[in-house]
Amino acid sequence: MYRFNALLSSADRTETTAPVPPTAPENVGPLNAERLACLHRYWSAANYLCVGQIYLKANALLREPLRAEHIKPRLLGHWGTSVGQNFIYVHVNRLISERGVETVFISGPGHGGPAMNACAWLEGTYSEVHPSITRDEVGMLRLFRSFSTPGGIPSHCGPHTPNSLHEGGELGYSLMHAFGAAFDNPDLLVACVIGDGEAETCPLEGSWKSVHFLDPRRDGAVLPILHLNGYKISGPTVEARLSHEDLIDLYRGRGYQPVVVAGDDLPGMHQRFAAALDACHDTIRQIQRDARERGVPVRARWPLIILRSPKGWTGPKVVDGLPVEGTFRAHQVPLATVVSNPEHLQQLEAWMRSYAPQSLFDERGTLRQELQALTPPAALRMGAVASVNGGRRLVALDLPDIADYGLEVPQPGEVIAEAPRKLGEYLRDVMRNNPYNFRVFGPDETNSNRLNAVFDASDRTAAGPCLEVDDHLAADGRVMEVLSEHLCEGWLEGYLLTGRHGMWSTYEAFAQTVDSMVTQHAKWLQQCREFAWRRPLASLNILLTSHAWRNDHNGFSHQSTGFVDNVLQRRSDVIRVYYPPDSNCLVNVFDHCLRSRNCINVITCGKQPDFQWLSPHQAREHCSRGASIWPFASNDQNQLPDVVLACAGDVPTTEAVAASWLLQKHVPGIRVRLVNVVDLGVLSAPEIRPHGFDTASFEALFTAQAPVMFAFHGSTWVIHSMVHGRANEARFHVRGFSDRGTTTTPFDMVVLNTMSRYQLAIDALSHIPRLREDAAQAVIFFEAQLRRHHVWIREHFEDLPEIRNWQWTSDFSESQQPPPLAIGHVKRQPFTDA
């Protein structure tokens, strides 16, 4: 028979590395006989409930022989990881009860939902938030019937699980969430279970470095528990095949003090794991004591437990002549044909009865009193602590007055500035006002993204010793920088999920690295709305800068707008997308986002010097509406315009305003209206997006029939999908990022993607029949300018003077025209190639 321990030597099977003495007798440890027996029975109760969730729709306590009609028609769920997680959970409960430590449990191994449901039901928190799932036989059966069935609950952790704080349907994010939860949470212990399959993912692999950012003076502690049970769905895991010595070397190199607990012998495993857990907590308390009493940072080697136990432990050992326990066959449903195979049905009944359910639950189906005594005090149950339902501890930010961060703009386009500079000043004061519950996260780009004013309030968090040459680096810094989008965004999620506030800034092109993470967080927020007991959380605020249109110097690798494409596929009650066109709008938008709850706010705004269009007062009014007509760039005088030039995004706004200037200058009599959109969602109907414009409001901006030339920051399909269903939607003609780019000039980027002022103007004129003859010379001029541009940048390596020196004027003077003869000297050739 294949056994889990076949890979381990006899010495390895019982080895536990320091701080537990390796020579300790196998069955000797901190548990007395009574406590050991009760703890083992409690574990058996959790295991029984896991099996019941996977298989049973009737006969919850096996009060009669098990029959095929008691079995669910579809068997779903994951047994292999559940039993190990139950083992850890029960032992952590014992630690909490004995030491009174506030703890949250993060379940990393994917679909380990049965374990978390079972443990929450045993401790009572599941019934408190789901009153119909009572703590008796009736409630037990309802729990079983709800698991992985229509109208029920999924097979992984989610918002329905009171002892879970993150969406468990995707692997890789547990450890970064754990550290995010521990930051600024000095009394919290985060027990984070990492599956050995999950340990193979890139996000998790990068998460181990988080330990270097933990400050024991002000932060809580994370106890990673790497659960090596040997296999994924069908193959072995990498780290499960490493020797103890290699694992210890690996994790010592990562900055941890690893403790290995391995085997399948009982009660020895209970004693060894309990001893390891006590020793690790002693180490944590000593680290924190040293740091807090001395008041200086301690570069600690934090503990980590490596638990090696069989996959599907205590389950069927052999099925149909093939080994199951300790193999990949235990991953999901070990007995898959119970309804049609009497032998499997007998094995299932024997398996479930091996836990002796009548000794675990009384006549009512309630956990027996002596076992309930192992549950931590009510306020310390892992499904009841405030941090696992972060909205319970959320305190609104003390936000400064945005009027103090206004940029004076005497006339539209008269000032050129880097928009994020003022936002940096605003965030600096947010950090000053909220020193314990607000952090800024991002790759090594805070300076690059023009947010460096935040360093007046706090330094970067040092991940190691500080040197004299370092810039704004300190052990107590609150600006979290590391070159991993996964880690920065995941830390922020953990920070928010436990009731705090923050923001993440990154280069637009590389935000897509965390598309899947943001998707999972959105799903968590969406589902939280279904449970009134899940209190609202601070929103996930994302600033995308260094964007596609102004990464002309870095080239095509840095030019992508796809992050928004992904988030817009999430439900509209969670997602908000903003394109502030200038500094004053950016500060207004961010202030609003920091006040919002249960949203993912994506704000895109460039960092390069650009035109500033609106005064602080105008920006506040504009942002409060979400979109508005810009009178200074319009000349329709409230009449029906010949064309509406719409724009969303800073560079598209510049091009649209310049296109309006060109049209008014070169086509006398044309009526142009310019509409700027800062909140993308307003384009949709309110039945599609709750903050969308109704028909009257929409047509007050875009009319019901005028052609609309829309210059958009991102993919053209986004606008078309937003205005779908509006009157005469075919009149919307969108120009946006079409995945054309290279190392080139700023203006050439918009030309390559057919969104330049000249192309917008040509497109507009093609949709105004009454001006076709009057506009012919203007079109020739605009086309010639594009050809001239193509040649000029290859000769001079910079944009045309009339592009570089252009600014908005209302008199349309001749001074900004190119030399009259310049056009005639340009050789005709395609202008769209790179």
Automatic annotation (TrEMBL):
Residues 607-808 form the Xylulose 5-phosphate/Fructose 6-phosphate phosphoketolase C-terminal domain. PANTHER family: PHOSPHOKETOLASE-RELATED (PTHR31273). The keyword Transcription regulation does not apply. GO terms for molecular function: aldehyde-lyase activity. Residues 7-26, 815-834 are annotated as: Disordered. It holds the Pfam family XFP. Keywords: Lyase, Thiamine pyrophosphate. This is Xylulose-5-phosphate/fructose-6-phosphate phosphoketolase. The keyword Lyase applies.
